[in-house]
């Protein structure tokens, strides 16, 4: 997992030119990451709070 995070950071900073860009692009990238974290947290909270489903009909 650390390797994947490092590769994602390198791609975002260098290949997407976020490193030398304006503050607005930094804000947009941060907003995208925050939105992703919100969606993942909502999905996981739904998954962990559901009861067990029985396979018997």
Written overview of the protein:
With 57 residues, this protein is an all-alpha fold. 72% of the residues lie in helices and 0% in strands. The longest helix has 27 residues, at 23-49.
The number of E-state strands comes to 0
N-to-C terminal Cα separation, in Å? Answer: 40 Å
Name the helix and strand elements from N-terminus to C-terminus, one letter apiece.
HH
Q: Which strand-content bin applies to the residues?
A: under 5%
- What is the tally of helical segments? 2
Question: What would you call the structural class?
Answer: mainly alpha
Shape: elongated
Question: What is the averaged pLDDT score?
Answer: 88
Biggest beta sheet summary: none
Low-confidence runs of at least 5 consecutive residues: none
- Radius of gyration (Å): 18 Å
Helix content: over 70%
Give a quick set of tags describing it:
mainly alpha
List the helices and strands and how they pair.
Layout: H1 2-15, H2 23-49
Describe what is shown at a glance.
The protein is 72% helix and 0% strand. With 57 residues, it is an all-alpha fold.
């Amino acid at each position: 997992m650390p390797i994947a995070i490092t590769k994602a950071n390198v791609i975002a900073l260098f290949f997407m030119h976020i490193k030398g860009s304006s503050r607005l692009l930094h804000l947009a990238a941060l907003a995208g990451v925050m939105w992703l974290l919100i969606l993942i947290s909502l999905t996981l909270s739904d998954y962990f709070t559901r009861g067990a489903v029985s396979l018997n009909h």
